[in-house]
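Hey, can you fold this?
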Amino acid sequence: MKFGRIIVFVFAMTCFFVFPKAWAETVVSSGEEEPFIYDDHGRRDPLWPLVDSNGIVINYESDFVVTDLMLDGVMVSAQGDSLAIINGRIVKPNDMIGQFTVSSIGANSVVLIKGDQEFELKLKKEE
């Protein structure tokens, strides 16, 4: 009975420690590291609220208003591949966030377009 427990324990430890390490080494040993890019498949960020302050279910594809968006960070590049973080999501020019299209990314702001209207999100200054 005790011998069986030892075998199960050794097998479990082997699976837990050896196999993941072997798999990781085969992935890294290829020589090229590819950055991980999360594909949200067009779904809502799971950290965004499901209902508004009035208790009404929010549909982020149609009910998104510009005041729901917050510019968290900006990375500006002279080569034109600037990035911004809006509500925790990394976007670049021409990306969509809700029904808004990212038009341009500046040093402290992002211009969004919805229909024929333009909106500017600005970074909040640390106090």
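Oh, and this one too while you're at it.
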Amino acid sequence: MNFIPDQTQLQLWDTWVYLAENDDIHLFYLANKPGGAWGYVGHAVSRDWLHWTDLPEIILRGEPGTWDAGGCGTGMVFKHDDGRYYMSYTGALSVNEASGLFTSRDLITWEKLTPKAPYWTRQTTPPYEEDTRRVAISPAWRDAFVTRNPQGEWEAVCSARVNEGAAAGRACLARCKLMGLDHWVTMPPLAHTGKYSSMEVPEIWSFGGKYWVVFSTGSNWGVRLDTESRRAVTGTFYVCADKWEGPYYAPKNNLLIGAGNNQMHSYVGRLLPYHGQYLLYHHYAGNPTAMGLPKVVNVEGDQLYLSPWDGLKGIWQGEAKLEEWRTYPAGVVAPGTWKQNEKTITGHCAYGSDALIAEAHAPNVDMEGTITLKSGRRAGIAVGMRPDKTSNGFACLLDAVAGEVTLTRFVRWEHANGLQLDARVDEVKYPVRRNRTYRFRLLRRDKYLEFFLDNRLVFSSLVPEPAMGGAIACVLESASAAFTIERVHILEPLKHQNAGMKR
């Protein structure tokens, strides 16, 4: 919901960002041409994370017959002691994948340093997985992340697999020391928990008195991944340790961003220190794939969570003026009753479901307010519909009975009084309490929706279709609740900055 390349030229997947000395934000992304395999790095630059200008693409794939002639994989950019910039990349995505390097003096023009051979080849002896005992099509040796260890030495980690244990739990971080830019010495694995079949695009960093590794993986890859709040999750996870060398462990609720129910919505979250905060950036795996909006990383003990970034004001186009609030029962009798004053809307629907709708003329919206579930089951906020009986939207609902927050379709149903509210997109276990006021923030831009509750990210989701309308609604299901809508800002439409592609 932030950046989409011109789809006739490049299609985006994993992203990596480098913050230049002049504060330019350089976005690099693994890319393919329409109908082709990953073989390029797309490149764009911004001053605010929100508005982008394209720069020349970088060809990753080598010439036929070279080690990196096949599909290529993700990397990152770092500045070495010699003052030059370097970009790691993965060549030969398959059994023999390995890591190579590009170099640049200006972050614009790049030269491949490894046309004939990689710098970090896959280790095929224990403790890493041997070819003769391979249990996956790709044993993994990709996505090298280069950084300094606490002693100031250059090291790298990458997604790999150990040689022992259950097939679906062999994922680890391979570790190496850079004795020179062309001399990478493999060391024993840095992190292996036995829980994951893959640990893609890893990064290691220090924050809040601990060391953290973020990586991306998913359910349906040989193992079901549940957390305390979600089932069958896919996205970006984390493990942590008190020391760089570990041991690393997975906290109980260690999904940083992603979705449940075997859905790949948000993927490959990465981190960058920016103006005194750590920002997470990621991509949405939709059609088209888009880079997401930055989010602020926070820590409590061994738990990380994401909150909204203040810089989002840069895509506000002004405040929406809400027109008359109206209820639209599908049947003869309205299921609920509503009252409103200058600041608060209250509603009661003893049985069934109802909504109070106002036209905001804002299909792309950033809104804040509060929800207080007084009694009963569910209450929440919906967006994306028109204020009539002919279009649907999407609702974020607090459920005190199930103890969860639900993102679902908001569907008017003409065969009965009320709404259909159970075509679910995602849900999160959450201890919803009655008579407690919850602060929400909801962002909807095209097919992408983000929902924060009490300043913490709950959903970062793809919805099945773009917004059909610009209305918002207060929603009840067998409940009484009070709502405040404190502000509604219209967001700039999502489009490619240079090509002006139609959305």
